[in-house]
């Protein structure tokens, strides 16, 4: 399906339907994906265990979406292309120094893990928005790919809100102003050169998959430190 050949209203309708369908597996636990304490007046009274359950559920789901998007793009566009060698060590989040092994992560202070998770989430705000925008106008991207990208963009915002609430609960106090890595691939995603454009898309899917895994892993480690490790999803 070529999005450029489809009327805008039809694309919007198709996208909406796909988002509804993609969310069906979550309906039984829909409350786990609702905004955390955003609309509450006064202190947030959601138990810490529930906050962690919600956050790890969303993080795991985002990782699954990221893997599906990467696999779909790789299968459709990577035949005969050596994309992997072009994107190794080129993620815009490479300046965020993360533990090299699981053991190093487990030994890291919880303040460090919180900082890493929040830095990674903030760093994907602009690229996810641009990814959805460019996929919408792509001549080759499937509506399914667009739907997944739109969903992970929305759920990343929900996850960020949840992690900030958890951090505030565990480490109350004034937040330090953080700087986050700048994403500078916007022009490559819309380049006229087909190889440049597809390499940029491959890179964003590859890096999103990698970082989503880190976010999910670090959140699970934090959950085990402060609440029960068992899943309640």
TrEMBL record:
It holds the Pfam family Hormone_1. One of its GO terms (molecular function) is hormone activity. CDD domains: prolactin_like (cd10288). This is Prolactin. It comes from Moschus moschiferus (Siberian musk deer). It is found in: Secreted. Its main location: secreted. GO terms for cellular component: extracellular space. Residues 1-29 form the signal peptide. Keywords: Disulfide bond, Hormone, Secreted, Signal. Belongs to the somatotropin/prolactin family. GO terms for biological process: female pregnancy; mammary gland development; positive regulation of cell population proliferation; positive regulation of lactation; positive regulation of receptor signaling pathway via JAK-STAT; response to nutrient levels.
């Amino acid at each position: 399906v070529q999005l450029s050949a489809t009327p805008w209203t039809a694309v919007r309708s198709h996208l909406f339907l796909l988002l509804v369908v993609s969310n069906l597996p979550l309906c039984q636990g829909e409350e786990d994906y609702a905004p955390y304490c955003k609309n509450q007046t006064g202190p947030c009274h959601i138990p810490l265990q529930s906050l962690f359950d919600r956050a790890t559920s969303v993080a795991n789901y985002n990782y699954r979406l990221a893997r599906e998007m990467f696999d779909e793009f790789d299968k459709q566009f990577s035949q005969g292309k050596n994309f992997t060698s072009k994107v190794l060590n080129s993620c815009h989040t490479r300046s965020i120094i993360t533990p090299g092994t699981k053991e190093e992560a487990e030994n890291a202070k919880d303040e460090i893990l919180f900082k890493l998770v929040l830095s990674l989430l903030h760093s994907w705000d602009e690229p996810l928005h641009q990814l959805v925008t460019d996929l919408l106008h792509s001549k080759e991207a499937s509506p399914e790919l667009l739907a997944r990208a739109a969903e992970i963009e929305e759920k990343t915002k929900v996850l960020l809100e949840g992690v900030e609430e958890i951090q505030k609960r565990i480490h109350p106090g004034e937040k330090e102003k953080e700087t986050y890595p700048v994403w500078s691939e916007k022009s490559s995603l819309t380049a006229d050169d087909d190889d440049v454009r597809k390499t940029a898309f491959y890179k964003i899917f590859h890096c999103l998959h990698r970082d989503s895994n880190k976010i999910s892993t670090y959140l699970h480690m934090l959950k085990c430190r402060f609440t029960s490790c068992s899943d309640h999803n």
